[in-house]
Write a structure and sequence with these properties.
single chain; about 170 residues; alpha/beta; two-stranded antiparallel sheet; 6 strands
Length: about 170
């Protein structure tokens, strides 16, 4: 879903981002189990319902919670594999010649400005994965959760992050 220059716009009428650490943990466990047990079969992450708006731009009708969480998950994976061009291109639309970031692939137009600002902040290229002070900021809480769990997945569990990233990019 993150090929070419495709953008996904979360329209103003969608509800605010609401996933908590619990849903993020469930998503990660599902992906981890699929990685360990079903690599050859791949993994179905669920449906997205989209409406065509303009060329290479889709309005997200259903699945925005999962899509938003997935893009943050990919952003964390990129922190552990920053030379992976395919992964970088899944998060942002890149200039074809310089690989400079043009814009993020998933944008939110939800009326709650604080949500939009926080989402943009966590998707910034140089975002620092620090424990958030504001426990109500679901974007910062969830991206921090993913960062910590991926770090454990690599350091304590001894997994090869590049194999896991390839599984996510090519088999999910």
């Amino acid at each position: 879903i993150f090929g070419d220059r495709t953008k996904y716009i979360i329209p103003p009428y969608q509800r605010a981002y609401s996933w908590t650490e619990s849903e993020c943990a469930d998503l990660f466990e599902d992906l981890k189990i699929a990685f360990y047990n079903n690599r050859s079969e791949g993994y179905f992450l669920g449906n997205l319902v989209l409406a065509t708006s303009i060329r290479d731009e889709y309005e997200v009708i259903d699945g925005q919670q999962r899509l938003t969480t997935l893009i943050m998950f990919l952003k964390v994976l990129w922190a552990f594999d920053p030379n992976n061009r395919k992964l970088k291109n899944a998060i942002w639309i890149l200039d074809d010649r310089t690989d400079e970031i043009i814009e993020q692939r998933v944008k939110t137009n939800i009326f709650i400005e604080k949500d939009s600002l926080s989402f943009n902040e966590v998707l910034a290229e140089n975002y620092q994965y620090l424990k958030p002070k504001d426990k109500k900021d679901k974007f910062k809480m969830n991206i921090y959760f993913f960062y910590e769990i991926i770090k454990k997945f690599i350091e304590q569990d001894g997994n090869d992050i590049k194999d896991f990233i390839d599984f996510i990019l090519y088999d999910v």
